[in-house]
Amino acid sequence: MAAQAGSSGVPTGGEADGTDEVADLFRALGRQIKVARVRAGMSQKELGDRLGYGEETISSVERGRRTPQPELLVAADELLECGGLLASAAEDVERARSRRRVRHPEWFRDYARLEAEAVELHDYSALAVPGLLQTKAHAQVVFRTRQPLLDEETVEQRVAARLDRQEIFKRWPPPFTTFTIEESVLRRPLGGWDVHYEQLEALLRFGRLRSVELQVLPMDRKEHPSLGGPFIMLTPKGKPQVAYLEVQHISRLITDPDEVRILAARYGSIRAQALTPEESLPLIEKMLGDR
Question: Does pTM top 0.70 for this prediction?
Protein backbone atom coordinates (compact mmCIF):
# COMPACT_ATOMS: atom_id res chain seq x y z
CA MET A 1 0.00 0.00 0.00
CA ALA A 2 1.03 3.61 -0.26
CA ALA A 3 2.42 4.95 2.98
CA GLN A 4 1.38 8.50 3.71
CA ALA A 5 0.87 10.70 6.75
CA GLY A 6 -1.71 13.22 5.68
CA SER A 7 -0.33 16.50 4.41
CA SER A 8 2.82 16.15 6.48
CA GLY A 9 4.16 13.46 4.16
CA VAL A 10 6.09 10.30 4.91
CA PRO A 11 5.28 8.65 8.25
CA THR A 12 8.09 8.89 10.72
CA GLY A 13 9.72 6.08 12.61
CA GLY A 14 13.36 5.99 11.55
CA GLU A 15 15.98 8.61 12.27
CA ALA A 16 17.89 9.32 9.08
CA ASP A 17 20.29 11.58 10.91
CA GLY A 18 21.64 8.74 13.04
CA THR A 19 20.17 10.02 16.32
CA ASP A 20 19.52 6.54 17.76
CA GLU A 21 23.04 5.33 16.94
CA VAL A 22 24.59 8.46 18.44
CA ALA A 23 22.59 8.05 21.66
CA ASP A 24 23.72 4.42 21.91
CA LEU A 25 27.36 5.50 21.54
CA PHE A 26 27.04 8.13 24.27
CA ARG A 27 25.34 5.66 26.64
CA ALA A 28 28.05 3.06 26.05
CA LEU A 29 30.80 5.57 26.78
CA GLY A 30 28.97 6.71 29.89
CA ARG A 31 28.87 3.14 31.18
CA GLN A 32 32.59 2.71 30.48
CA ILE A 33 33.41 5.90 32.40
CA LYS A 34 31.32 4.71 35.34
CA VAL A 35 32.98 1.29 35.42
CA ALA A 36 36.46 2.87 35.32
CA ARG A 37 35.50 5.41 38.03
CA VAL A 38 34.13 2.75 40.38
CA ARG A 39 37.18 0.58 39.79
CA ALA A 40 39.36 3.55 40.79
CA GLY A 41 37.31 4.03 43.97
CA MET A 42 36.11 7.54 43.09
CA SER A 43 32.73 9.17 43.53
CA GLN A 44 31.23 11.25 40.75
CA LYS A 45 32.11 14.39 42.71
CA GLU A 46 35.73 13.30 43.15
CA LEU A 47 36.10 12.51 39.47
CA GLY A 48 34.50 15.81 38.52
CA ASP A 49 36.79 17.76 40.86
CA ARG A 50 39.88 16.05 39.45
CA LEU A 51 38.83 16.71 35.85
CA GLY A 52 37.44 20.21 36.35
CA TYR A 53 33.76 19.30 35.84
CA GLY A 54 30.77 19.45 38.13
CA GLU A 55 29.28 16.35 39.75
CA GLU A 56 26.06 16.80 37.76
CA THR A 57 28.01 16.82 34.50
CA ILE A 58 29.73 13.53 35.36
CA SER A 59 26.39 12.03 36.38
CA SER A 60 24.71 13.11 33.15
CA VAL A 61 27.57 11.80 31.02
CA GLU A 62 27.53 8.43 32.78
CA ARG A 63 23.80 8.11 32.18
CA GLY A 64 24.21 8.97 28.49
CA ARG A 65 22.11 12.10 28.88
CA ARG A 66 24.92 14.48 28.02
CA THR A 67 27.50 14.43 25.23
CA PRO A 68 30.90 13.29 26.56
CA GLN A 69 33.22 16.04 25.35
CA PRO A 70 36.35 14.70 23.59
CA GLU A 71 38.60 16.54 26.07
CA LEU A 72 36.74 14.92 28.99
CA LEU A 73 37.30 11.48 27.48
CA VAL A 74 41.02 12.10 27.02
CA ALA A 75 41.46 13.43 30.57
CA ALA A 76 39.36 10.65 32.13
CA ASP A 77 41.29 8.03 30.18
CA GLU A 78 44.58 9.25 31.64
CA LEU A 79 43.30 9.77 35.18
CA LEU A 80 41.47 6.42 35.37
CA GLU A 81 44.25 4.55 33.58
CA CYS A 82 42.02 3.19 30.83
CA GLY A 83 44.90 2.53 28.46
CA GLY A 84 43.48 4.59 25.61
CA LEU A 85 40.01 3.01 25.64
CA LEU A 86 38.20 6.28 26.29
CA ALA A 87 40.65 8.54 24.45
CA SER A 88 40.32 6.49 21.28
CA ALA A 89 36.59 7.26 21.22
CA ALA A 90 37.13 11.04 21.17
CA GLU A 91 37.24 11.15 17.36
CA ASP A 92 34.09 9.01 17.12
CA VAL A 93 32.30 11.39 19.47
CA GLU A 94 33.28 14.40 17.38
CA ARG A 95 31.97 12.73 14.23
CA ALA A 96 28.78 11.75 16.06
CA ARG A 97 28.26 15.31 17.28
CA SER A 98 28.59 16.59 13.72
CA ARG A 99 26.23 13.87 12.54
CA ARG A 100 23.67 14.90 15.12
CA ARG A 101 23.67 18.44 13.75
CA VAL A 102 22.66 17.12 10.32
CA ARG A 103 18.90 17.12 10.50
CA HIS A 104 16.33 16.26 7.86
CA PRO A 105 12.79 17.59 8.18
CA GLU A 106 10.59 15.03 9.92
CA TRP A 107 8.56 14.18 6.83
CA PHE A 108 11.72 13.25 4.91
CA ARG A 109 13.45 11.02 7.45
CA ASP A 110 11.92 7.69 6.49
CA TYR A 111 12.92 8.18 2.87
CA ALA A 112 16.43 9.39 3.82
CA ARG A 113 16.90 6.30 6.01
CA LEU A 114 15.97 4.02 3.09
CA GLU A 115 18.14 5.99 0.68
CA ALA A 116 21.17 5.60 2.96
CA GLU A 117 20.94 1.80 2.67
CA ALA A 118 19.87 1.63 -0.97
CA VAL A 119 21.51 -0.76 -3.41
CA GLU A 120 19.74 0.88 -6.37
CA LEU A 121 18.29 4.34 -6.90
CA HIS A 122 16.65 5.75 -10.04
CA ASP A 123 15.66 9.42 -10.10
CA TYR A 124 13.50 11.21 -12.68
CA SER A 125 13.82 14.98 -12.20
CA ALA A 126 11.45 17.22 -14.12
CA LEU A 127 11.62 20.48 -12.14
CA ALA A 128 14.93 20.67 -10.30
CA VAL A 129 18.41 19.19 -10.14
CA PRO A 130 18.22 15.97 -8.08
CA GLY A 131 18.89 16.73 -4.43
CA LEU A 132 21.58 14.05 -4.31
CA LEU A 133 23.56 15.87 -7.00
CA GLN A 134 23.25 19.47 -5.83
CA THR A 135 26.21 21.65 -4.93
CA LYS A 136 26.23 23.60 -1.68
CA ALA A 137 25.60 26.91 -3.48
CA HIS A 138 22.73 25.44 -5.50
CA ALA A 139 21.15 23.87 -2.41
CA GLN A 140 21.41 27.17 -0.54
CA VAL A 141 19.45 28.88 -3.30
CA VAL A 142 16.83 26.12 -3.27
CA PHE A 143 16.18 26.45 0.45
CA ARG A 144 16.59 30.24 0.72
CA THR A 145 14.04 30.92 -2.03
CA ARG A 146 11.51 28.39 -0.76
CA GLN A 147 8.07 29.76 0.20
CA PRO A 148 7.18 30.23 2.99
CA LEU A 149 10.65 31.44 3.92
CA LEU A 150 12.90 29.37 6.16
CA ASP A 151 15.12 30.99 8.81
CA GLU A 152 18.87 30.94 8.19
CA GLU A 153 19.57 28.25 10.78
CA THR A 154 17.04 25.92 9.17
CA VAL A 155 18.46 26.67 5.72
CA GLU A 156 21.95 25.71 6.83
CA GLN A 157 20.66 22.56 8.52
CA ARG A 158 18.81 21.52 5.37
CA VAL A 159 21.83 22.25 3.17
CA ALA A 160 24.14 20.24 5.44
CA ALA A 161 21.69 17.34 5.49
CA ARG A 162 21.38 17.39 1.69
CA LEU A 163 25.14 17.36 1.16
CA ASP A 164 25.52 14.63 3.77
CA ARG A 165 23.34 12.35 1.65
CA GLN A 166 26.08 12.30 -0.99
CA GLU A 167 28.06 9.99 1.29
CA ILE A 168 26.29 7.08 -0.41
CA PHE A 169 28.52 7.62 -3.45
CA LYS A 170 31.58 6.96 -1.26
CA ARG A 171 30.33 3.62 0.05
CA TRP A 172 31.75 0.35 -1.21
CA PRO A 173 30.13 -1.11 -3.04
CA PRO A 174 28.25 2.05 -4.02
CA PRO A 175 24.59 1.80 -5.00
CA PHE A 176 23.81 1.64 -8.69
CA THR A 177 22.17 4.98 -9.50
CA THR A 178 20.60 6.45 -12.60
CA PHE A 179 19.40 10.03 -13.01
CA THR A 180 17.20 11.18 -15.87
CA ILE A 181 16.91 14.96 -15.92
CA GLU A 182 14.75 17.15 -18.15
CA GLU A 183 16.86 19.39 -20.39
CA SER A 184 14.80 22.39 -19.22
CA VAL A 185 16.16 21.88 -15.69
CA LEU A 186 19.72 22.17 -16.98
CA ARG A 187 18.97 25.38 -18.86
CA ARG A 188 17.49 27.25 -15.90
CA PRO A 189 20.30 29.29 -14.23
CA LEU A 190 18.97 28.91 -10.69
CA GLY A 191 20.95 31.20 -8.40
CA GLY A 192 22.66 32.98 -11.30
CA TRP A 193 25.09 31.81 -13.93
CA ASP A 194 28.08 31.29 -11.61
CA VAL A 195 26.07 28.98 -9.36
CA HIS A 196 24.54 27.28 -12.39
CA TYR A 197 27.83 26.57 -14.13
CA GLU A 198 29.29 25.17 -10.92
CA GLN A 199 26.25 22.89 -10.73
CA LEU A 200 26.70 21.70 -14.31
CA GLU A 201 30.35 20.90 -13.58
CA ALA A 202 29.23 18.89 -10.55
CA LEU A 203 26.77 16.95 -12.71
CA LEU A 204 29.62 16.02 -15.03
CA ARG A 205 31.67 14.76 -12.09
CA PHE A 206 28.80 12.65 -10.80
CA GLY A 207 27.98 11.43 -14.29
CA ARG A 208 31.52 10.10 -14.73
CA LEU A 209 31.35 7.91 -11.64
CA ARG A 210 31.34 4.21 -12.47
CA SER A 211 28.22 3.63 -10.39
CA VAL A 212 26.21 6.49 -11.95
CA GLU A 213 24.37 6.79 -15.25
CA LEU A 214 23.15 10.30 -16.00
CA GLN A 215 20.78 10.99 -18.89
CA VAL A 216 19.15 14.12 -20.28
CA LEU A 217 15.61 14.07 -21.66
CA PRO A 218 15.63 16.58 -24.55
CA MET A 219 12.94 19.25 -24.85
CA ASP A 220 12.27 18.38 -28.49
CA ARG A 221 10.66 15.00 -27.75
CA LYS A 222 7.14 14.89 -29.19
CA GLU A 223 5.86 12.35 -26.66
CA HIS A 224 6.32 12.10 -22.92
CA PRO A 225 5.46 9.08 -20.71
CA SER A 226 5.46 10.94 -17.38
CA LEU A 227 3.82 14.34 -17.33
CA GLY A 228 2.64 13.61 -13.81
CA GLY A 229 5.86 14.89 -12.30
CA PRO A 230 9.15 13.66 -10.81
CA PHE A 231 9.63 10.50 -8.78
CA ILE A 232 12.34 8.21 -7.41
CA MET A 233 12.59 4.41 -7.49
CA LEU A 234 14.62 2.99 -4.64
CA THR A 235 15.68 -0.52 -3.61
CA PRO A 236 16.91 -0.81 0.00
CA LYS A 237 19.29 -3.67 0.78
CA GLY A 238 17.37 -6.89 1.30
CA LYS A 239 13.99 -5.19 0.80
CA PRO A 240 11.51 -4.75 -2.09
CA GLN A 241 11.71 -1.73 -4.36
CA VAL A 242 9.70 1.33 -3.30
CA ALA A 243 8.86 4.64 -4.93
CA TYR A 244 8.99 8.16 -3.55
CA LEU A 245 7.02 11.21 -4.69
CA GLU A 246 7.40 14.78 -3.51
CA VAL A 247 5.18 17.57 -4.81
CA GLN A 248 4.68 20.99 -3.21
CA HIS A 249 6.45 19.76 -0.05
CA ILE A 250 3.97 16.90 0.35
CA SER A 251 5.68 13.51 0.28
CA ARG A 252 4.50 10.00 -0.36
CA LEU A 253 6.42 6.77 0.06
CA ILE A 254 4.85 4.07 -2.13
CA THR A 255 5.18 0.41 -1.19
CA ASP A 256 2.20 -1.14 -2.99
CA PRO A 257 3.71 -3.62 -5.50
CA ASP A 258 1.35 -2.71 -8.32
CA GLU A 259 1.94 1.03 -7.97
CA VAL A 260 5.69 0.47 -7.72
CA ARG A 261 5.63 -1.74 -10.83
CA ILE A 262 3.77 0.91 -12.84
CA LEU A 263 6.26 3.63 -11.88
CA ALA A 264 9.22 1.35 -12.60
CA ALA A 265 7.85 0.68 -16.09
CA ARG A 266 7.25 4.39 -16.58
CA TYR A 267 10.85 5.13 -15.60
CA GLY A 268 12.02 2.63 -18.20
CA SER A 269 10.03 4.48 -20.86
CA ILE A 270 11.51 7.81 -19.75
CA ARG A 271 15.05 6.47 -20.03
CA ALA A 272 14.29 5.03 -23.46
CA GLN A 273 13.33 8.50 -24.74
CA ALA A 274 16.29 10.23 -23.11
CA LEU A 275 19.75 10.65 -24.55
CA THR A 276 22.18 7.92 -23.58
CA PRO A 277 24.79 8.70 -20.91
CA GLU A 278 27.39 8.89 -23.69
CA GLU A 279 25.26 11.54 -25.43
CA SER A 280 24.14 13.37 -22.28
CA LEU A 281 27.52 14.31 -20.81
CA PRO A 282 28.73 15.99 -24.04
CA LEU A 283 25.48 18.01 -24.07
CA ILE A 284 26.22 19.28 -20.55
CA GLU A 285 29.80 20.03 -21.61
CA LYS A 286 28.41 22.04 -24.53
CA MET A 287 26.20 24.03 -22.15
CA LEU A 288 29.31 24.90 -20.16
CA GLY A 289 31.18 25.82 -23.32
CA ASP A 290 28.42 28.23 -24.37
CA ARG A 291 28.99 30.54 -21.41
Answer: no
